[in-house]
Prior knowledge:
Layout: H1 2-16, H2 26-35, H3 72-81, H4 86-94, H5 96-99, H6 112-122
Heme C (HEC) is lined by residues 36-37, 39-41, 50-52, 54, 57, 62-63, 65, 70-71, 73-74, 84, 89, 93, 103-105, 107, 109, 118.
Amino acid sequence: MKRLTVTGIALATGLAFGGSAWAGDAAVGKAIFDKTCANCHSTEAGVNKVGPTLFDIVDRPIASVQGYEYSKKMRAVRKQWKVWNSQHLDAYLTNPRQVLHGVKMFFAVPDAKDRADVIAYLNTLK
Ligand code: HEC
């Protein structure tokens, strides 16, 4: 298990530093997003569902959407992680409730390639 986690972080680091081999495919990521994340998240500014809008999420400060009621845990994570960069998104999406015990979101993306694709798509939400 530990090995897998370390691999995930290595991949995300490659992503953050522009490693082209693991850049992720935004089109594939959008398909995954529309099937899964979209049940709880909109991509439009100001539109919250069960979860907060993910408009402009990459490098957005954690737990910062006005009018959305975050869990206490998510607000605490903000002090530690500050922003949703690629590494933080990758770690979180691997298993939200295991990585950040106490957050409300229970949907995980266990496959590292799927996460890279989703994060590539999230990068287009500007
Ligand atoms: C079953 C509903 C559900 C699904 C599916 C879901 N989420 Fe979430 N998500 C939430 C909730 C609820 C929160 C708020 C968590 C909290 O406050 O603890 C959240 C929070 C987040 C945040 C933090 C936002 C912020 O403003 O700090 C990100 C990033 C995120 N989700 C990404 C995703 C992605 C990407 C997917 C798809 C791979 C996804 N979520 C699927 C419910 C969901």
